[in-house]
Amino acid sequence: MTLRLSTVILPVFRWHEGGRAAWQRAEELGFHTGYTYDHLTWRSFRDRTWFGALPTLTAAAGATERLRLGTLVTSPNFRHPVTLAKELMSLDDISGGRVTLGIGAGGNGFDATALGQEAWTPKERADRFAEFVPLLDRLLTEEAVTERGTFYTADEARAIPGCVQRPRLPFAVAATGPRGLRLAARHGQAWVTTGDPKLFETGTPEQSLAAVGGQIEKLGKACAEIGRDVAELDKILLTGFTPEQNTVLSSLDAFVDFAGRHQELGFTEIVVHWPIPDSDFATDQAVFERIATEALAQLGN
Fold it and tell me: Has this prediction a pTM greater than 0.90?
């Protein structure tokens, strides 16, 4: 099974002081996709530089030619399907059809309350996600949409001329629970996981591997329920949140071992964080670039 290698470039670089150069270098290194997080701010970066995802991706579209671009991930925490659909359609046009939408249910981070609302319960996040994704799907594939849901309303919303990619740009749905996996099975062209969060700090690599293998099995069952072949979905692992954390980028051998074990499970894309000095994502740039240029060949891709 062919494996792709992608990177996520957090929106922490001023565009003219390293931002443009990072995205262009990602393309030069041969990464399949350059993703960025779609948050208002995130964890230890709350009081540090942090730019908006969609403007960053728009700039990246103009600075690159081949690199696919995407969010990893956006969520309903501060997005509405109608406005998001218009921005995504525009970005897909600007990039010449190189956009993937990574989308998840959101969490309890800073985004959850930044607009002044109380943080949603896990059930409400799942309920909103279950309404958000199908409506966004319609908004990106139909010329005019009217929908009145429990959480989201569209009134004759237009998406003309539609996406460059047909019938719309691909969705990569981040999910581990049953409802989210069903959304991935029905609406996704890809599925995303970061592993099992319960194992991040105290689990072992072996336990993590078994956990993500179990997630893939559950995804297969969700696909089977609607008569879909799970092989149709790309399976994306965002690294840095398994027990290995970022030690997978400590050497070429360490990464090849990690990626190979996950490729055997059925993953088709591994995503690594672009190095950021003085952060949890501080990585030796030379080692990182060696992984980017040599790892896939060692894995038989």
Answer: yes
